[in-house]
Automatic annotation (TrEMBL), chain A:
Gene3D superfamilies: P-loop containing nucleotide triphosphate hydrolases (3.40.50.300). It comes from Halobacillus locisalis. It holds the Pfam family ABC_tran. Belongs to the ABC transporter superfamily. The lineage of its organism: Bacteria, Bacillati, Bacillota, Bacilli, Bacillales. GO terms for cellular component: plasma membrane. NCBIfam families: oligo_HPY (TIGR01727). PANTHER family: DIPEPTIDE TRANSPORT ATP-BINDING PROTEIN DPPD (PTHR43297:SF2), OLIGOPEPTIDE TRANSPORT ATP-BINDING PROTEIN APPD (PTHR43297). This is ABC transporter ATP-binding protein. GO terms for biological process: peptide transport.
Amino acid sequence: MLKVDNLHVHLDTSDGIVKAVDGVTFSIEAGETIGIVGESGSGKSVLAHSLMRLNPEPPATYPKGKVYVNDRNVLQMNKKELRHLRGNQVAMVFQDPMSSLNPVFKVGKQLIEGIQAHRKRPKKEAKEKAIELLRDVGIPDPESRIDSYPHQFSGGMRQRVLIAMALASEPKLLVADEPTTALDVTIQAQVLDLLKQIQHKYGAAILIITHDLGVVAQLADRILVMYAGRIVEFGSTQDIFYRTAMPYTWSLLRSIPTAGAKRRLIPIDGQPPSLIHPPKGCNFEPRCPFATDACRHIDPDLEPRGDGHQAACILSASEFESIKEEVASS
Amino acid sequence: MSDLLEINDLRVHFPVKKGLFQRPKQYVKALNGVDLNVRQGETLGIVGESGCGKSTLARSIMGLEEPTSGEILFNGKDYMNADAKDIHHMRRDVQMIFQDPYTSLNPRMKAGESIAAPLKAYKETDRVEKRVRELLELVGLDPDTDYHKLPHEFSGGQRQRIGIARALALEPKLIICDEPVSALDVSVQAQVLNLLQDLQKKLGLTYVFIAHDLSVINHIADRVAVMYLGKVMEKVDAGSFQSQALHPYSRALLSAVPVPDPSEERRLDRIVLNGELPSPADLPSGCVFHTRCPLATERCRTEVPVLEEKHNPNQKVACFHTG
């Protein structure tokens, strides 16, 4: 349903051109959940915003690549087509529920406006639809809550309202950019549960962007790991966690504290590279515990590592497997 | 081990002023009877969701908030009723590391100047530069190149290191870490957590470590206190927190954390709490958790459970239903 082909997104800044997304290819099947993980600055949000062309232009430009939604290239759409795409086919849930709602209008008015923008229908019908959506996302007593202002809702409830808005026109793809980062854990658990239920009921595909490996482990069918504007590993959730085939993913998994065992944490040394002047060879080479001389010259492509599993590293799956223990103990 | 810090029945209530004459009609009860002790050399982890009072607690220990009642004893001395001069002296023993390394440093002050600021405040003007250089080295920065850099030239993790160096400048005994890694990426978070542990070992520091991330708390703390709506619900050794926490709120918190392991997570039965946190201006009667508790009974609605020993001397729980 969504196909991204060799996408490049550049941000034109006063310091130079930031290659925020640097040749990304993947696709999303109807009804599945894909998680994008990566650290801040890895390009995951810019990538997600590109799917609806929400990156402000300028500074964003799309020098190369295509984004197909139902076989239409989003990057070549005119304003009218984009309006139709946003909301109808692809909808977005943003990170911060505090700033994504207009504080001076009632929640119901904002929701009804969204419903009517996509399909002309009488106000009364739109209001009924709004109440139904609020009920679907688990807001108690939606008939009266529809007349509340955003400040009268808690953070978790506001995030539910935003999910209701995104669902207004029954999109085929829901893009959720860090939807639970601003929420407390017990509320996060409620919202993640809600996303699963919604997916079941509406059959939408979900693209969830997060830095929390726990969230993707719980929610995603497939995971896309980004580093410095590129996909460095892509595979099923099981592949990523149990058959890790790429040093960055492996290091990332080792750096998180886990329950129980009180071992010393193993950080990834250094910082992500500059995206204005990326290193010549592999982007991860300066921080990679597996790096060899060759890595400084060879920029590895994403290559298959098994059924539907891809990784970008000059080490093959078996080579990586055989020296993993050695690196881990050093 | 002796107690470095002792907090007894601490209450901090903020008046909500309303009406023409701005008379306080209501009080936001941010802390509502907190008892805690922190032993010399340990790390006490404090967990809880937003609004549970953990930051008010940190600010009270720092002397930044005037408690309504209760006492805070530091090294056996009453903190709150001391005169200004004593407080000035005590305060150098208690320092704080803040959450956001982007806003807690002055953008126009060089790293070295920021770290030197507390030394100057306490009139320790001898060999300031040498001390600052030592501190920079201690936190893993380069004294030669990093001394004269401005905050924007550092990454988030490096900025947090400057914040740590600044907190260490006066050789404090106790450091309050208020969500020190929650703004950092996981790979960098591990660097900062390791640094904090190394410094503790090297300098014999005591930490009060506030975080909402339970895996971080589990990793760094020796003991854990779980807070909810201005009260401590459970105190337990960190080692047995994950497996033996008894309070229904602790259990719900633990089960709500998404585990970064696909098989484990899908197997686990999660307790999803219903509803939201009640307003601290209008606290529920009885046990404050009863509105969201799966075990709540009539008794919980009327009676307030006290924090008492359960099963072993290192575990205290405020709940009627934990035997």
